[in-house]
């Protein structure tokens, strides 16, 4: 059944059968604090689909066009998910993440997805070839059910295996599956005509750790081919119920009868309503000392709770757990710097730990459709590449456009911008790593004093400790609450609730650097 309650709360969740699995706090590993639903107590199949061509299509035809391909793809394939009894369907950009009650229904759904997409593409005239639905691979694995967190993300070995199969190993237009998934359907009448091609790693090809872990878990991997002569009926572009109402205008762009002029007019309406200029910050988590998804989710939400104050301070809007947008590019960078300090200061000496592998920032127009998971565009794609693919060890990498937008900002004086090159979809472009400068205590103090003078507040003013702490944190959240408390020690008299700003800065700025990052910085010579 369509879980309208959860889809309203989380636009990533498009369908959920709540009669399966459990959402009871006693059945969730953290009592429901961060988890929404669990199928961990049963064997299920996970299906992950992937699409291709985002960068190429967006550069040539724009983000509205690519979003319309996603909308039309969902409109065609969501009925297939329902037909085969999917227990859960979530969307993540151009991917479907699905849970099925058994592997047979998952494989039949995957096969029908390719058939229906192939038929939709076959009907396109040559001049509309760029409207092709770019479904790439689909991965399916069978095993212990995953857990769904409140951000709409799935966790667990079976899900991760299917993700690796669909996005990393599967060749274009095929269905990849684990050996246990194949074994579960061999002998079933529906798969009598199926052929199973063993997956082979190309000579000299090296897999990353995630792929190696998935291959080790699954053993053999196969690609399935399953002939089918069943009639294909495609839903019309105005069919409601399979996509959110806000996405129907995008699907209507695929109407065969619409003229170029009418489509341009429709695009103009979409652009006026949904294109906004934003600075995008994206980051990615890494874990040490644990591969337990429950522990990882708990660590993630604990760190995000500490980040939340920073995002509120700089007026950031969280669109995903690892994606935050800002109106001002400088605020995006200041938030990243503050988060880096928090993440590096809070790591335990032993036991499971979380780190932020990197932060990426880019600026530009994004397509933002309220009530849906669509917040796409070059800024998101580039920030993701910078922060999630290129950065490592807590690096902050910003695009050349972002660096130009923040140049001259007084609050970024304590930082160096070190040029470097990055690659995006095979294209080399310029970017900058952001590192702390060595800065004298007096200069640090003067930066904050200047801001008080701009606001016509005398630095000699005696302020309530709580008020001063709040102001300083807003100006420079590179200071943590614990550090601010230590700065107060010995300055105010016993029982006093007020403190001098200048005395505070003399003590605090001399004792603590403004944003020291403990990672090694690159050599610039």
Short structural summary:
With 525 residues, this protein is of the alpha+beta class.
Please describe the topology of this protein:
Blueprint: H1 4-9, E1 13-16, E2 35-38, E3 43-51, H2 54-61, H3 63-83, E4 88-92, E5 95-100, H4 103-122, E6 135-144, E7 147-149, E8 154-155, H5 157-169, E9 175-178, H6 179-185, E10 195-198, H7 209-218, E11 221-225, H8 248-252, H9 260-274, E12 275-288, H10 293-313, E13 317-320, E14 323-326, H11 329-345, E15 353-368, E16 375-376, H12 378-390, E17 395-399, H13 400-406, E18 415-424, E19 427-436, H14 441-454, E20 462-464, H15 465-475, H16 481-488, E21 498-500, H17 501-511
Parallel strand pairs: 6-9, 15-17
Antiparallel strand pairs: 1-4, 2-7, 3-5, 3-6, 4-5, 7-8, 9-11, 10-11, 12-14, 12-15, 13-14, 15-16, 17-19, 18-19, 20-21
Helix pairs in contact: 2-3, 3-4, 5-7, 10-11, 14-17
Question: Tags for this entry?
Answer:
single chain; 525 residues; alpha+beta; Alpha-Beta Plaits; Recoverin, domain 1; 3 domains; eight-stranded mixed sheet; 17 helices; globular; disordered N terminus; disordered C terminus
Q: What is Rg?
A: 26 Å
Second rung of CATH, namely the architecture of the largest domain: 2-Layer Sandwich
Number of strands: 21
Distance between the termini: 62 Å
Task: Name the average pLDDT.
Answer: 85
Stretches where pLDDT is under 50 for at least 5 consecutive residues are: 1-8, 511-525
Corresponding CATH superfamily of the largest domain: Nucleotide cyclase, GGDEF domain
Give the % helix: 25-40%
Q: Give the oligomeric state of the chains in this entry, treating copies of one chain as homo and distinct chains as hetero.
A: single chain
Strand order across the largest sheet: 1-4-5-3-6-9-11-10
> Which of globular, elongated, flat, extended, rod-shaped describes the shape?
globular
Number of structurally distinct domains: 3
Strand content: 15-25%
Largest beta-sheet characterization: 8 strands, mixed
Q: Predict the CATH topology of the largest domain.
A: Alpha-Beta Plaits
Count of alpha and pi helical runs: 17
CATH class of the largest domain: Alpha Beta
């Amino acid at each position: 059944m369509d879980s309208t309650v959860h889809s309203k709360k989380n636009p990533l969740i498009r369908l959920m059968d709540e009669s399966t699995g459990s959402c009871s706090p006693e059945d969730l590993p953290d009592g429901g604090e961060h988890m929404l639903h669990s199928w961990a107590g049963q064997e299920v199949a996970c299906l992950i689909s992937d699409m291709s061509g985002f960068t190429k299509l967006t550069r040539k035809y724009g983000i509205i066009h690519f979003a319309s391909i996603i909308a039309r793809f969902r409109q065609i394939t969501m009925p297939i998910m329902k037909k085969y009894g999917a227990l859960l369907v979530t969307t993540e950009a151009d991917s479907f993440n699905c849970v099925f009650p058994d592997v047979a229904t998952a494989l039949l759904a995957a096969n029908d997805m390719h058939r229906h997409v192939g038929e939709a593409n076959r009907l396109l005239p040559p001049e509309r070839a760029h409207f092709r639905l770019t479904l790439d691979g689909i991965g399916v694995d069978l095993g212990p059910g995953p857990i769904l967190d409140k951000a709409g993300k799935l966790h667990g070995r079976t899900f991760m295996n299917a993700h690796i199969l669909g996005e990393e190993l599967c060749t274009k237009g095929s269905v990849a599956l684990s050996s246990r998934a194949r074994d579960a359907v061999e002998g079933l009448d529906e798969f009598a005509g199926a052929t199973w091609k063993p997956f082979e790693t190309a000579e000299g090809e090296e897999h990353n750790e995630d792929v190696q872990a998935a291959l080790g878990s699954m053993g053999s991997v196969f690609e399935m081919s399953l002939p089918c002569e069943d009639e294909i009926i495609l839903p019309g572009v105005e069919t409601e119920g399979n996509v959110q109402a806000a996405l129907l205008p995008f699907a209507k762009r695929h109407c065969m009868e619409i003229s170029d002029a009418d489509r341009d007019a429709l695009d103009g309406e979409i652009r006026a309503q949904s294109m906004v200029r934003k600075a995008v910050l994206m980051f990615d988590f890494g874990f040490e000392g644990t591969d337990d998804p429950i522990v990882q989710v708990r660590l993630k939400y604990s760190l995000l709770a500490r980040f939340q104050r920073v995002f509120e301070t700089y007026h950031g809007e969280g669109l995903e757990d690892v994606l935050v947008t800002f109106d001002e590019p400088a605020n995006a960078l200041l938030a990243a710097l503050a988060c880096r300090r928090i993440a590096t200061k809070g790591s335990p000496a032993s036991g499971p730990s979380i780190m932020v592998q990197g932060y990426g920032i880019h600026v530009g127009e994004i397509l933002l459709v309220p009530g849906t998971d669509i917040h796409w565009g070059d800024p998101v794609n580039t920030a993701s590449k910078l922060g999630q693919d290129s950065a490592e060890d807590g690096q902050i990498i910003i695009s050349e456009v972002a660096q130009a937008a923040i140049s001259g900002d007084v609050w970024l004086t304590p930082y160096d911008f070190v040029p470097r090159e990055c690659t995006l979809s095979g294209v080399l472009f310029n970017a900058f790593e952001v590192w702390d400068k060595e800065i004298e205590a007096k200069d640090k103090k003067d930066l904050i004093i200047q801001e008080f003078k701009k606001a016509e507040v005398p630095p000699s003013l005696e302020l309530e400790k709580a008020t001063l702490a709040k102001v300083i944190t807003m100006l420079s959240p590179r200071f943590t609450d614990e550090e601010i408390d230590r700065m107060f020690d010995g300055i105010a008299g016993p029982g006093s609730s007020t403190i001098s700003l200048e005395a505070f800065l003399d003590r605090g700025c001399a004792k603590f650097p403004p944003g020291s990052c403990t990672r090694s910085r690159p050599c610039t010579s």
